[in-house]
Amino acid sequence: MVALQRMGPNLQLIEGDAQQLAGMIAFTCSLAENVSSKVRQLDLAKNRLYQAIQRADDILDLKFCMDGVQTALRGEDYEQAAAHIHRYLSLDKSVIELSRQGKEGGIIDANLKLLQESEQRLKAIVTEKFDTAMKQGDLPQVERFFKIFPLLGLHEEGLSKFSEYLCKQVAKKAEENLQLVMGTDMSDRRAAVIFADTLTLLFEGIARVVETHQPIVETYYGPGRLYTLIKHLQGECDQQVEKVVEKFVKERDYHRQFQQVQNSMMRSSAEKIEPRELDPILTEVTLMNARSELYLRFIKRRITADFEVGDSMAPEEVKQEHQKQLDKLLNNCLLSCTMQELIGYYITMEQYFMRETVNKAVAMDSYEKGQLTSSMVDDVFYIVKKCIGRALSSSSIDCLCAMINHSTTELESDFREVLYNKLKQGFPATTFQDFQRGVTSAVNIMHSSLQQGKFDTKGIESTDEAKQSFLVTLNNVEVCSENIMTLKKTLESDCAKLLSQGFGGEQAQAKIESCLSDMAAVSNKFRDLLQEGVSDLNNTAIKPQVKPWINLFLSISHSIEEEEFSEYEANDPWVQQFIVHLEQQMTEFKAGLSPVIYDNLTGLMTSLIATELEKVLLKSSFNRLGGLQFDKELRSLIAYLTTVTTWTIRDKFARLSQIATILNLERVTEILDYWGPNSGPLTWRLTPAEVRRVLGLRKDFRDEDIKRLRL
Amino acid sequence: IRSMWSFWLKNLRQFSFSWYTPEACLQFKEHFHAQVRTACQQSAGTVGLKISKVVVVGDLYVGKTSLINRFCKDNFNRDYKATIGVDFEIERFEIVGIPYNLQIWDTAGQEKFKCIASAYYRGAEVIITVFDLADIQTLDHTKQWLEDALRENEPDSSFIFLVGTKKDLSDAVCERTEIDAIRFANEMQAEYWSVSAKTGENVNEFFSRVAALAFEQSMIKELEKTMGHMVQIGTGNLISMLNFASCVYFPHLCSQRLGRVF
Ligand SMILES: Nc1nc2c(ncn2[C@@H]2O[C@H](COP(=O)(O)OP(=O)(O)OP(=O)(O)O)[C@@H](O)[C@H]2O)c(=O)[nH]1
Ligand SMILES: [Mg+2]
């Protein structure tokens, strides 16, 4: 409390100071406010002054325009007049309103009226002059007045009038061209594609028009206006295309040919149109479409580039709207629709062409001695490539994909069916070989033939043919499968080229991929067919031969003494003969089959030998020397088979080799040197039960010893 | 890529196995074939991409393109823009861990484009025949469309759907049309659905059903193929697996997968 009292006077002092300070701040503040409001007023005044000057300028300008237009019009200086009108049109409307409210309002009003009249007059004059120039085909005058329209705010009118002029030019040229077509000598070099050529001339003409006049449009109308110009031109283009196509349809009898094709495809009885006759027209239609695609790509690029410049600052919606307009122009123009229709008919006719020609190639199939395949495979793929190639040359992805699909169906269903049926007839296995091998069978054949009342040596010949046919068909199937993959690869790179040139829509790549992978799947179907055919061959031609040869093993004793063992050494009782048989038999296949198929077949054969030999072994009995004999035999066999195939024989014969090892043992317990922890690098393919069973084949081993084994 | 698991979880759990009307549906199973599930579980992440081809046919203006656009791009356009030739969309999924694509071919309904469109019918795992609920004529024409599409395919190799569009315009007439449609579906051995591309009603549900059935089919085909090989080698006894009853319930699989994804 005392301390507080002591502070009393000090506090009073502070209070006084504080009040003084507050007063000063308030003063400064109001001063500042005063000043700043003055500044603000000053600023406003300045702005008003500027506006006043601007307005005075504008009013002066307005007056200048009013005078200028009159003078210019009198002097027929339309450019100058238009420049004045342009200035007037770009003036602030409120300025004009203000000027009318001023003291001289009356005069200004009158002048303004004059100005507006002049504007109307100028518009009329320009339109009229333009029309006259257009009628006279006076390009400099046309261009002169074309440049004036945008100054008068008449962009759309200007473009539309100018397009009208350009369309007339296009039409005139097109009519001349069409006249020329009608007069063309049909022996002319280009006669077969004359309609494609006519379309080309039309498109090139329009492209040239665009090239020539794009700069003037850009300069005087600004970017983003090309679309309007081209849209007008497209209208003319459509009309001309319609005329050309109409003539084409009539002259080439396009619809009737299509109708006839459709009839022959639906009813086999209908009078068939000769596919060769369709060849030229199919080529011409694809060429026509290719030209159209090229042209459409041209205008797409031009318009897109122009919009890009014009819309660089535009909001997203405007850009999208422009894109939509462009898409609509490209997709819905009569040119696109007409071409789609022609291509639709083309697809059906091309499909017919392909199917009929393939049938012909199949019917005329021939085989030359020494060749692995027959003529139809080459022919069929030549045809398929030709048809797809033609579809590709149309530059239309949809057309190409459609034709890829038809080709896939043709190969998968029709052609594969032909090969399948040939294979189904089978490889005539026994008769011929029996005949070769022994009199017994020959007697049998004669017997049966005689019973049927005929003896026909041709039977043997035709058996030979049937065999050849089977082998050739196998080769054919393999080549088909290969060819399809090659075709797919070629098409992939062809399509990549087409796409990189800017043809095809956004999904073009995916469409192509889908159709091509479908085609590749058919290649696998041919592979499957080949596999079936080879295993048929193995079952019908090899198995019936190999089994008896292997069974001969049973008649050779493998419980032998030294003497017989040496005798066997001098005169091999089985394996050498077996190898000779195999060699003989396989010669035919080696010569008649492609290396890949032959290798496939030998693979199957070696598996077969391994299985059959094992079966026979289990029916035989051995002693120590017999086991040794078998080991020798097996080694010879493996050595031989290794030379005829690229397959790893050792693996297929692993079980047999292990059996040989067991049959070669001195004592039963010796197996333990190879078994379990002692097996070393050897992996046993035999189960313990099988090992016991094999040991049991050794007549000199005691059953108790085998039973006692711990495996 | 729509590998959005949540999307699938939602759709598969709630809709994919539910049919639209029991009077016309292709099967009543509530989840994938037991073996398909086992196979998926074992091979998730290891098998290649599975693709099924879907072909959409029907008269012009019935709303084929709109239906596809609603599903693939989730938009709807009031203006009619005729399809020229064929359009193509790929919708990417992941089903129980297996990447899966539907290739949707949108064909033109206009007669003059038929030649080109029909070249795309081959190899269709799914054929969707579309008609306009408000235009009974278009329903009558579905039989012809289907016949044309089937001609290019192996017998019994495709699922068939009959779809009535513009359900939002529904009134008494539409309801009567729907009764006819169900009868048609039975005759065509098709599954019937009614949808609206405008409102989106039933669109996702429908395509989920399509994807689920086609996916299962393609997995079964694959299994049969590999089993065919195995039987050849002689491992035996695999065929009986086809019949073994399932104890793995589908949502369980989902949650397992979820555990791995998130
Ligand atoms: N109200 C309503 N209108 C729809 C529906 N679906 C489509 N439409 C309209 O029907 C018209 C035709 O639709 P599209 O999808 O183009 O028909 P489309 O079957 O593809 O025709 P094409 O391509 O010529 O075969 C368009 O104007 C759509 O806006 C729908 O569910 N409800
Ligand atoms: Mg459509």
UniProtKB/TrEMBL annotation, chain A:
Superkingdom, taxonomy of origin: Eukaryota
GO cellular component, one term: Golgi transport complex
Keywords, in A-Z order: Cytoplasm, Golgi apparatus, Membrane, Protein transport, Transport
Entry membrane topology: Peripheral membrane protein
COG4 transport protein middle alpha-helical bundle domain segment(s): 115-424
Location relative to the cell: Cytoplasm, Cytosol; Golgi apparatus membrane
GO process terms (BP): Golgi organization; protein transport; retrograde vesicle-mediated transport, Golgi to endoplasmic reticulum
SMART domains named in the record: Cog4
Chief location of this protein within or outside the cell: cytoplasm
Membership in a protein family: Belongs to the COG4 family.
Record-given protein name: Conserved oligomeric Golgi complex subunit 4
Organism the protein comes from: Anas zonorhyncha
From TrEMBL, chain B:
Pfam family, one: Ras
SUPFAM superfamilies in alphabetical order: P-loop containing nucleoside triphosphate hydrolases (SSF52540)
Localization of this protein: Golgi apparatus membrane
A GO term for molecular function: GTP binding
One GO cellular component, as annotated: Golgi membrane
Principal location: Golgi
Keyword entries, A-Z: Golgi apparatus, GTP-binding, Hydrolase, Lipoprotein, Magnesium, Membrane, Metal-binding, Nucleotide-binding, Prenylation, Protein transport, Transport
Membrane topology (UniProt): Lipid-anchor
Cofactor (UniProt): Mg(2+)
Residues spanning the membrane: none
InterPro entries: P-loop_NTPase, Rab, Small_GTP-bd, Small_GTPase
EC number: 3.6.5.2
Catalytic activity: GTP + H2O = GDP + phosphate + H(+)
Domain of life: Eukaryota
PANTHER family: RAS-RELATED PROTEIN RAB
Family membership: Belongs to the small GTPase superfamily. Rab family.
Function as written in the Swiss-Prot or TrEMBL entry: The small GTPases Rab are key regulators of intracellular membrane trafficking, from the formation of transport vesicles to their fusion with membranes. Rabs cycle between an inactive GDP-bound form and an active GTP-bound form that is able to recruit to membranes different sets of downstream effectors directly responsible for vesicle formation, movement, tethering and fusion.
Protein name per the record: Ras-related protein Rab-36
Annotated organism of origin: Cairina moschata
Origin organism lineage: Eukaryota, Metazoa, Chordata, Craniata, Vertebrata
